[in-house]
């Protein structure tokens, strides 16, 4: 993990054995947008094979293992034979149960992406990475005059190379996570591949957009009933209202404009702790307002103490650095920082991988008080001496357990030992997450003052109770059929579908498009522009289904996500908690459906039973049986005894080194290294 994209950005062009040709005429919308106007492909066209996706064909894509690194030729052959877009007739044969309403690619919205030719970020196309297997996507997918493109390019084509096979593992450079190698050999001169030139479109500047927000849900007031435990020496009392926080008028105005009238529990406890200058590790359920819990008191202090950054200094020395594990999440945090600092002299800047470094630097030198960054890019701008650390007063690790695990942990250690970085005694370090495995808590001690406070809102690592969880036993070869059935029942409600690998994300997205379910995808193999486009299309409802890998599991706050489907269950229970937390946010209700494959998911049965029962969900008898049979008589997953099954580790120092947040012995690394590109 921690596949620092700095290097991934300078990738070797790879040659694909399979380059399907997408032609706009084949998948163009009709005049009213609701006609799926397909011309059968010729049988010689490998991209539009007459063959259907077939389960159980060992030569087909479907049966491939989830391991991404394998013979390129074999995979591509398999996919081109099995996985190409079908022609109209075959598609009809396959899609017999298609719903009328949803058919035709859900009318205009369905299946057809936004036009790209006029997009702000087309300008650098010529210098982007060299295509990849679906390298012809840009021209071939360009829509007709209305600017539409066939959305499933997202699904079928991976920006950074789609089905790259072996090549995706052959990202050059020895120190993948080495800030030095990135800074030195990164965009500044390495000639191994095309440079990343993507400049994200600037966020809207108008006040309405800046303060746009969604409504809190019917269960928002129930937050007040959640038990909160604060541990550590001499914690300040919680506050009950925003007024008690004594924030300056501008901040209060911004809070009101953001639609916040009442504090969430994590805010009630964290704000006074941070205002009191204490270090903090806070664990609260997904979607319960952790971002504002750290931003507001930091901004309040910055306003009180005054800030020093001035414009157009080559070296900017921010007072606050916020790191998060994924690009989309850090961008979201930046937008929150920009919202709450609106009308103040505090300037927040964001920088993350997959975008042009020069652009980030230009933003930074215009003044930077709060730097929001993904870890690799942060080390780059430090290495390039654009960011100095001497003024850092606040270091925030969002999704802190992820930031400290084996993927990003080494990078975070480098960060705190960088020249100039104030020692932990001299800075305030704040960590937030919905999950906090105890072993990671122990690692965190290195970053925090010894008297840090630990806030646990409800069950540490517990699932949000506003999410109705259902576990279905579905075997590997029935998953697609079940998925389509569920999605057809769901209709147009926004749904995130999680799968285990990048390739599967593409494959499933392609498959759903083929089923005329408007879908896009996000994963670490897609170019950043495509990731952002996919997220944008999902957010605005243009594509109500987003197929994602774990890159989208944490932190993303998207309005109206009503359903999460775990097509593949993740390997850890914490990951499960984060994934399902994309719905049921801020007091709204949501649903999560997970496909449990007896052959591959048994190790998750026990922690799943625990998480379900702690969240007062129905536990299927078959799942309990598996949990018992896997773990024997000692298992008591249904016991609802201790609300704080996992707590501040300083309470349990002795002999409990392998517990995870669900309170069970961990059979695997907390966050296994995978092949995703995160930041
Ligand atoms: N006090 C509040 N009143 C109203 N809305 C709030 C309040 N606090 C936060 N929100 C909103 O709730 C949503 C979820 O907040 P946020 O993204 O900070 O959750 P989180 O706890 O960080 O979730 P995750 O664990 O998934 O990262 C956001 O849209 C945010 O603007």
UniProtKB/TrEMBL annotation:
Quaternary structure annotation from Swiss-Prot or TrEMBL: Found in a mRNP complex, at least composed of TDRD1, TDRD6, TDRD7 and DDX4. Interacts with RANBP9. Interacts with RANBP10. Interacts with PIWIL2 and MAEL. Interacts with BMAL1 and CLOCK. Interacts with Tex19.1 and, probably, Tex19.2. Interacts with RBM46.
Protein name per UniProt: RNA helicase
Keyword Nucleotide-binding included in the entry's annotation: yes
Record's catalysed reaction(s): ATP + H2O = ADP + phosphate + H(+)
Region (Disordered): 26-203, 658-679
GO cellular component, one term: perinuclear region of cytoplasm
GO BP terms: meiotic cell cycle; regulatory ncRNA-mediated gene silencing
Stretches assigned to the Helicase C-terminal domain: 482-627
Keyword annotations: ATP-binding, Helicase, Hydrolase, Meiosis, Nucleotide-binding, RNA-mediated gene silencing
Name of the top EC class for this enzyme: hydrolase
InterPro entries assigned: DEAD/DEAH_box_helicase_dom, Helicase_ATP-bd, Helicase_C-like, P-loop_NTPase, RNA-helicase_DEAD-box_CS, RNA_helicase_DEAD_Q_motif
Family: Belongs to the DEAD box helicase family. DDX4/VASA subfamily.
Short sequence motif Q motif: positions: 240-268
Domain Helicase ATP-binding, first and last residues per copy: 271-454
Protein encoded by which gene: DDX4
Localization terms from the record: Cytoplasm, Perinuclear region
Composition bias type Gly residues, residue spans: 102-114, 154-164
DEAD-box RNA helicase Q domain: residues covered: 240-268
GO molecular function: ATP binding; hydrolase activity; nucleic acid binding; RNA helicase activity
